[in-house]
Write a structure and sequence with these properties.
Distance between the termini: 53 Å
Largest sheet: 5 strands, mixed
CATH topology of the largest domain: Nucleotidyltransferase, domain 5
Oligomer: single chain
Mean pLDDT: 84
Low-confidence stretches: 1-13
Number of helices: 10
Order of helices and strands: EEEHEEHEEHEEEEHEHEHHHHEEHEE
Number of domains: 4
Shape: globular
Number of strands: 17
CATH architecture of the largest domain: 2-Layer Sandwich
Length: 434
């Protein structure tokens, strides 16, 4: 059942083309909730129009149904949560260029695709950490191209689970067709497959929050499925459940979602102009400050550069003394490590965290689970990172338990994403320290 069909009786439903022109158009917001797989799936789009205290909602089979006067309204697009990874990162810089360069490396263990094909959007939180959203560039381009052909220029594009209202010390959970949308914080959340019992991903997330001392006091449930047993779910999850009496669309969440995907290459020109216009006085002051401190910065840079050269010379000298036969020194630290590794290999000594012992240790587990397919593996930092295709999240838990409990490995789940074909998982495996 589509989201809008669950809202009958809560919000007036009608056709977009049949709507009367709302009063005070400049204050009117058109929200579009894109279904998963759109536009290829051809699934209808849920929409709702907010004008002051008035709220209307319904479905549109085609974007051409949207009246011309609404195309100039404030358009907010909510994208399928499964198409965006919400995570956090901590970087020692405030430079946007440096942040965008560093994010793919900082989040490498959580990414399943080529970083060059991914779009990163972020928001700096009060504690200095970055709330990050990662979406495939191709998918975001497709959404914006189809919307542009219909004359729609959204000013905000956000993952739909960030539209869920959020109470203090609470998580919000929405039953959306075959998925559960979960919002765990102002800029955090995830999506997992819907089942009759609490999904493994939700159970694992609550357990992690419990270990970190961040367990919510309750879960706010929106649009629960027919036959939903709140008492059983609450008992299995170990937290209280509160069934929301209204629909999440009745809450104005626009002001609560500054984590906008329209950043960088996807930032609209008009949005950038409107953003920087009130900042012009501050930019002038910043320019004066920059010129006044440029000399100090150049002096500090020169000192750091001199220190770097001195340390580089010291490392080169140490390397040449240790390995006098090496005539060409380009990166003394890297060359020193390679030569030491080669000497250790020549000695014939191996450790439990070497590549071959790790590989031999995981083979029995993979062979005993024929439905699990190994996509790739990578060895580094005395550990093995493997990418797997699994039929479901339960199979991922079986693999993790077998490697951890039976085989004696230290296993960390780096990523677990639901796909149409099953689950794509990434595990980090090391031998447990004695």
């Amino acid at each position: 059942m589509a989201l809008s069909e669950k809202l009958n009786g809560l919000v007036p439903s009608r056709s977009l083309s049949a709507m009367r022109r709302p009063h005070g158009l400049p204050g009117t917001t058109l929200d579009l909730i894109l279904p998963r797989g759109w536009p290829e799936s051809g699934t209808q789009i849920d929409w709702y129009v907010r004008s002051g205290a008035d709220l209307s909602q319904g479905q549109a089979a085609d974007l051409d149904e949207i009246p011309p006067y609404l195309r100039s309204a404030h358009v907010v697009v909510w994208t399928p949560p499964a198409d965006t990874l919400l995570t956090q990162a901590t970087l020692p810089t405030r430079s946007r260029n440096k942040i965008m360069q560093a994010l793919p490396f900082a989040l490498e263990d959580q990414l399943l695709g080529d970083p060059q094909q991914l779009h990163f959007a972020y928001y700096r939180q009060d504690d200095g950490t970055l709330a990050v959203a990662v979406t495939a560039r191709k998918r975001l381009n497709t959404w914006l191209d189809v919307l542009a052909k219909a004359g729609l220029r959204p000013t905000r594009v956000c993952p739909a689970n960030l539209a869920l209202p959020l109470e203090p010390d609470s998580w919000s959970v929405l039953f959306a067709d075959t998925e559960l949308w979960v919002r765990t914080g102002p800029f955090s959340g995830f999506v997992c497959p819907l089942s009759d019992t609490p999904p493994t991903t939700l159970v694992a997330a609550l357990e992690e929050a419990r270990q970190q001392g961040k367990l919510p006091s309750q879960l706010s449930i929106f649009n629960p499925a027919a036959g939903f047993d709140a008492q059983t779910w609450g008992s299995n999850l170990g937290v209280g459940l509160v069934i929301a009496n209204d629909a999440f669309q009745t809450h104005d969440s626009n002001s609560q979602t500054p984590l906008n995907l329209l950043q960088g290459d996807f930032a609209p020109t008009g949005q950038l102009h409107n953003t920087f216009k009130p900042l012009r006085p501050a930019i002038v002051i910043l320019g004066i400050w920059f010129l006044a401190t440029l000399g100090f910065n150049l002096s500090e840079w020169w000192q750091l550069k001199s220190a770097y050269r001195s340390q580089q010379q010291a490392m080169t000298s140490l390397f040449q003394k240790t390995f006098p036969k090496e005539k060409v020194v380009l990166d003394p630290a890297a060359q020193m490590q390679r030569n030491l590794d080669a000497l250790q290999g020549q000695s014939g000594k191996t450790s439990a965290n070497d590549f071959l012992p790790l590989l031999a240790g995981i083979v029995p587990t993979l062979r005993s689970n024929s439905s699990v397919k190994l996509r790739s593996l990578k060895y580094g930092d005395t550990g093995l990172t493997i990418d797997l295709n699994l039929p479901d999240f339960q199979a991922l838990e079986v693999i993790k338990n077998d490697l951890g409990v039976t085989r004696g490995f230290s296993v960390e789940v780096l990523a677990a994403n639901s796909r149409a074909s099953g689950v794509e998982g990434r595990l980090r495996i090391q031998r447990t320290s004695n």
